[in-house]
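[agent] plan:
  1. take the single chain provided in the ticket
  2. run structure prediction with default settings
  3. attach structure tokens to the ticket
  4. add a short note for the reviewer (M.T.)
[agent] executing step 1
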Amino acid sequence: MDIRHLQYITEIVRHNSFTKAAEALHLTQPTISKIVKNLENELGVEVFVREGRHIKLTAAGETIVSHAGPILQLFDGLEAALHDLTYLNTGSIRLGIPPMAGSSFFPQVIKKFREQYPNIAIKMMENGAKRIEESLSEGLLDVGVALWPIDEVLFDSFTLVEDRLKVILPPAHPLADREQIRLAELAGERFILFNSDFALHDRIISECRTVGFDPHIVYESSQWDFIGEMVGADLGIAMLPETMCRQLNPGKVRAAVLTDPVIPWRLDMAWRREGYMSHAAREWIKFTKELFTRAARR
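[agent] step 2 finished; step 3 output follows
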């Protein structure tokens, strides 16, 4: 038995037909029937039985099919890995980016990577850092931008950006002229937060509870610039990283340093410690690490 036999049997089962399986495999029907017959003679068991115009797996056939799926997946992974080792000019990367990081840090990074590797496709999923971590752990993404701290047992990572949260308020707010605001002073405020897909959502709620209150949440959004606009319309106050605050219109909102406690905002590029990673994804990690390391030294 070899890998082709598993492929042929799987196709026959998938199509429930020798003829259709032969067409899918670009073989003739007599050829695929002869291959299966030779395999049955080799193994000393029947794989299929015919019931009228239909075919059915025997117990031995069911055993073969139950093992064929994982074996064929491993074989496909082996072929992909060998291909990646040889040809870096092809491939794809499944990348998760939070909206805040996407607009602020990655357009130029992606442009430079594309210039160097024009045939590597980058398939982006834009979502909150919490959802990105979940997708990484489920194997739905190769790499993703996550909010520190992350699970170091599951993920390897390097730091992209280190920042801290600031409070943003409408200009007419009584605290708008303050340079610093303690978190406890915001106990009676209406909060505008990122939605629950974002790690900052839970982080802010947790920090508020630590200083003695549950935040009164009036709105949630997935877009930091929209949150800024809602604050400017006097719908509530919010907390955003200083990097984002610098991009808001100072005529519409004021930003103050958050203290007691300081809430850090650190973005890491993360990927699973276990499991196969394509050569293209490895090159992305190497490329972005070098790029952000150089930027941090400036």
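[agent] step 4 note for reviewer: The chain has three domains: 3-86, 92-160+266-297, 162-265.
[agent] ticket updated
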